[in-house]
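User: Teach me something about this protein's shape.
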Amino acid sequence: MKTLSTQAIQQDIKELQKKLEEIHPNPYKYISQKDFSTLLTKNTESVNNIQDLGLAIMTILAKLNDGHTYLDLSYEVFGTNSFMFKFRFLNDGYYLIKSSETLSDYLGSKLIGINDHTIQDIETSFATLIPKENETSLSYYLPSKLMEPVILESLNIKDGQSIKLKLEKEGRTVSVDIEPEDCKNKMVSISERIPNIANTITVQDTYWFEEIANLSAFYFQFNECIEKEDLTITEVVEAFEKSNLPNLIIDLRNNKGGDSDVLNPLKRFLKEYKNKYKVVTITGADTYSSAIINLLELSNLPSTISVGEVPHGNPTHYGEVESFILPNSQLKIFTSSKIFRFNGYKLGETFKPTHIVPTRIQDLIQGKDTQTEYLSKIL
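Assistant: First, the predicted structure itself:
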């Protein structure tokens, strides 16, 4: 582990604050400049290595309540080993949706606790490390942080090489000991273990479409705001028009952003024929950044409704990320450089779908799509 002198650390934290003030549109929206400076000094006064400095910076940046401003998850801070499991918050708790082969028999299980810590205790501990953009932030970001042994140890949740996961499956509680693995190891997804899984809950490409006969709908899964060379958005529009279907479903559940203008051909088409089609957007916790912009623009069209989960991104939000590197530790920091404002939404206010329909673990285990199943009742 690389050690750092007191002088080197002081230079780095001064550079951190200086760069944030130069680049970020309003770093002191949620914390005063004085309190930020005091926290920087207090959290780093006993630090003498790159790992502890990284953890201190992570805690400090969380105070800005901006998910686009964060410490790069480098090997120098977090090492190359992780706990190879991925939980996801679904309606009433955190459920195992990906894991190494070691835990694959427990896919679909609910997390009750780790070692002697309940899930409520764990949420309280991790709240100091997670930027609070809105009410979904903690439950959204917690699962990725749980994978890091260094973080669990710093919060006194882990005190040895392994941890004991307490899981609930099919009405019974089990305890499973697990050790960190190489973070490059492949994980098994719950979707790989489900026979006859609904097509609409599998992420197959940047975007793709199909016709859903029982919904009289043209379904368009838009997973990333990037245009494909072999299938342009204009071609998607042409396929929709030729289908002669009255309903258009635009699935943004897996879309974390990119270039919001990519969807312009579809948006122009829908504005021109605004009374001809019923448009449904499906939202998920992952919907973020430019996908939120697309969601709002589509929601402003007549005959448009939205169905799904509350996105973890906000309509009015910081973005357009830039980066800089601290001179001594070489830690990389990402930060917003612009604020995007939308009428009717203050910073920190979420987009609420017309119909809030959280994903149910019972549906997922059976290969059913909670949101499209709901659409069969309203279309």
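Now, about its shape. Residues 253 and 283 are 5 Å apart (CA to CA). The chain has three domains: 6-78, 81-192, 194-314+350-378. If you'd like, I can walk through any region in more detail.
User: That's plenty for now, thanks!
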